[in-house]
Amino acid sequence: MKTKRILFALLLSIGLFATSCSSDDNEGETIVPIQGKYNLSQTGTIIDGKEVLIDAPQNQAGCSRDYLDLRISNAAVIGDYNGSDCALTETTGTYARSHNDLTISVGNLSSTSDIMNLTNKELKLKDKTTGIITVYTR
């Protein structure tokens, strides 16, 4: 009788472990937190089925790289360095994440992008309207 109880407990444990390790829980959504400061690295698009990326022309030579700062409070801060003195202009809006979509709103304007890649080192977005790919690095 004692052996049957141990066997039952072991089988129950294996069953619970197997169901907790299901790979379809996130439906393709990454579990890396999106909050953080990302430096603009590359932009591009898909041509003939292949990604074509170049160094971001928005980054002014001799200045720090432009950035996107996604804060825990859902504030989105866009940093833009420009001019001969590399003056920083910050624009603040909000962001919302829904599965693998990221919507950034500034004033009356908003854009929604697919999150193509999100790791501890990279955020890659593809604008749903224009198809432009933007790569940010931490």
The gist of it:
The protein has 138 residues and is mainly β. 14% of the residues lie in helices and 50% in strands.
Throw out a few tags for this protein.
8-stranded antiparallel beta barrel; 50% strand; mainly beta; disordered N terminus; Lipocalin; 138 residues
Percent helix, as a range, is 10-25%
Low-confidence stretches: 1-26
The major β-sheet equals: 8 strands, antiparallel, barrel
Question: Roughly how many Å is the radius of gyration?
Answer: 22 Å
Looking at the overall shape, the CATH architecture is: Beta Barrel
CATH topology: Lipocalin
How widely separated are the two ends? 58 Å
Mean pLDDT: 85
What portion of the residues fall into strands of 2 or more residues? over 45%
Architecture blueprint of SSEs:
Blueprint: H1 2-20, E1 36-47, E2 50-55, E3 67-70, E4 75-82, E5 87-98, E6 101-106, E7 109-118, E8 122-127, E9 133-137
Antiparallel strand pairs: 1-2, 1-3, 1-9, 3-4, 4-5, 5-6, 6-7, 7-8, 8-9
Textual characterization of the structure:
With 138 residues, the chain is mainly beta. It has one domain: Lipocalin (Beta Barrel). Helices cover 14% and strands 50% of the residues. It contains one helix and nine strands; from the N terminus they run αβββββββββ. The model is unreliable at 1-26 (pLDDT under 50).
